[in-house]
Amino acid sequence: MRFWPLEILVLVVTGSSVLCESSLEGELPTSLRDNFLEPISWSLFHQREANNVHAKFSLRKPSLPDDDICYIVPGEEETLGNCNFNNTAKTFLVIHGWTVSGLFESWVAKMVAALYGREKDANVIVVDWLNTAQDHYIVAAQNTQKVGQEVGRFIDWMEDKANIPLEKLHLIGYSLGAHVAGFAGSHATNKVGRITGLDPAGPDFEGVHAHERLSPDDAHFVDVLHTFSRGSLGLSIGIEQPIGHVDIYPNGGSFQPGCNLRGALEKLANLGLIAMNEAIKCEHERSVHLFIDSLLNGEEPSKAYTCGSSDMFERGMCLSCRKNRCSIMGYDMKKVRKARSVKMFTKTRASMPFRVHHYQLKIHFTGQKKQTEIDPTVMASLYGTNGSVENLHLKVDGKITPNKTHSFLLVTEEDIGDLLMLKLRVEDSSNWSASSLFGMVQSWWNGESSDSEPQIQRIRIRIGETQKKMVFCLKFYQKANLSHEATFVKCKESWRKSSKRTRGRSIEDTEVPIYR
Ligand SMILES: *[C@@H]1O[C@H](CO)[C@@H](O)[C@H](O)[C@H]1NC(C)=O
Ligand SMILES: *[C@@H]1O[C@H](CO)[C@@H](O)[C@H](O)[C@H]1NC(C)=O
Ligand SMILES: *[C@@H]1O[C@H](CO)[C@@H](O)[C@H](O)[C@H]1NC(C)=O
Ligand SMILES: *[C@@H]1O[C@H](CO)[C@@H](O)[C@H](O)[C@H]1NC(C)=O
Ligand SMILES: *[C@@H]1O[C@H](CO)[C@@H](O)[C@H](O)[C@H]1NC(C)=O
């Protein structure tokens, strides 16, 4: 029986292959390892370094996004004319990643069609380096530099022969293809307009020097989507570190909704390898579909919010955008001035269209010192002019502490219109000291504590998508069996009136000491 350290096991995934750089503790079941995990001898890599790298450039047609019918061949100028290359239009280079099958994955045609859908005159060129990409992951990873050089020479040639303006050149690379795009950009004589990295590959690129991976130096604007960066389980296919001018981490950059990786990992030991392969592909490739979504649903774009960490974003602390202008995820993203390695976050739906609506709730809990910290289960319901969403779980991160403003993030898939009413419900989900919990929550909400002072009077809300701010006041409070419910409506009193006592400073300025 052979035992291989998990660090050097390569996990072969149907449809797309990924390296499993795992820190899962212990050994995987033997049968699983023998069937699916292919041990690699390191000396092999160095012997097998391929040197016949060869990239082909297929100019696809809007009517046949799936077919390679016309190749542009560097050095053969007539191929530009033969393929009806439009040298005043935008040019896209779509660059695939590692492959097991040696075939294009189905997203390539979808991307081509979506690009033509948005830019009908454009030249959408698929860079075909399938031959090289088919090798062992680590060999393929090493070859990204050579492929990139070749693409860089192609760019120089196009600039020289077709006079294409490089600011209209946009490279879109997925996984290893993102690093190919980076090398292409750094090898081209003049700087290209934009590179979009779609979940750039992590293994062999995480932590290396900027010259050895995609970096902000490779184009005037480098934007990156991270959908499968290292999760809590130590499995990282996409690169985790920010490597562009702007790096967006949808859903924290791991565990994309609808992919069920967590479930697959839990079942891994008995049956889950196929489910897991699908989940991994789903997470990694989500970056591609988010970008395609941004092309197809440009009129209702997903917004992304600058934030220091995923944790802070999850607590709703980052929904305010500079000058109320939020960044748009995907194709319509604009370069942020002087930005470099700016991290942005957003939540998404499980399928296209991915956009959601983000709400920040700021609640100030006042209370007496004898009250202890509590950790309740709180459900929120939102009612708007055009619909409602009920029973959203309000993630209480840690404990609720008296005399502190707590910030929460709520997300709705539907557009409920203008928000009219908000309900909060606390339930006895645990067996823990229910009576003292309820006593305390009740006192917060209706002021029936011994000191009889209203404890939550208002909730301040900011909507990420519209940047609207509003204040909601307690309307009534209801106790039913094991749940307590408080209803809040838009305050009648004006915002200014309530902040008069602070001499013109808004409530926000005075009540938000910890989240500013
Ligand atoms: C080339 O692209 C430009 C837009 O950049 C467009 O106005 C023009 O009609 C295109 N030419 C042809 C022949 O399609
Ligand atoms: C919260 O503030 C109020 C009023 O300032 C004070 O009476 C109360 O003791 C404080 N509670 C805690 C737990 O510090
Ligand atoms: C209200 O919702 C309906 C269906 O849910 C939708 O068709 C309509 O466009 C919405 N109106 C507004 C103003 O959002
Ligand atoms: C509360 O539930 C936990 C398990 O969820 C149990 O171990 C504990 O004994 C329970 N405590 C009481 C007071 O029932
Ligand atoms: C309260 O509990 C009783 C029985 O436990 C149940 O019949 C009743 O429907 C509950 N009321 C509400 C409002 O949930």
Question: Secondary-structure map with pairings?
Answer:
Layout: E1 9-11, E2 18-19, H1 30-36, E3 37-39, H2 42-47, E4 56-59, E5 71-72, H3 78-82, E6 91-95, H4 107-118, E7 123-128, H5 130-133, H6 137-162, E8 169-174, H7 176-187, E9 192-198, E10 219-225, E11 246-250, H8 261-266, H9 273-296, E12 303-306, H10 310-314, E13 327-328, E14 342-346, E15 357-365, E16 377-384, E17 387-394, E18 404-412, E19 419-427, H11 434-446, E20 458-463, E21 469-480, E22 483-490, H12 495-498, H13 507-511
Parallel strand pairs: 6-7, 6-8, 8-9, 9-10, 10-11, 11-14
Antiparallel strand pairs: 1-2, 1-3, 4-5, 4-7, 12-13, 12-14, 15-18, 15-20, 16-17, 16-19, 19-22, 20-21, 21-22
Bound molecules: 2-acetamido-2-deoxy-beta-D-glucopyranose (5 copies).
CATH class of the largest domain: Alpha Beta
Compounds present?
A: 2-acetamido-2-deoxy-beta-D-glucopyranose
Structural class category: alpha+beta
Strand order of the largest sheet: 5-4-7-6-8-9-10-11-14-12-13
Rg from alpha-carbon coordinates = 26 Å
Mean pLDDT: 79
CATH architectural group of the largest domain? 3-Layer(aba) Sandwich
Number of strands: 22
Q: Which spans of ≥5 residues are poorly predicted at pLDDT below 50? A: 1-50, 429-437, 447-454, 494-516
Signal peptide: 1-20
Family: Belongs to the AB hydrolase superfamily. Lipase family.
EC number: 3.1.1.3
Domain PLAT: 357-492
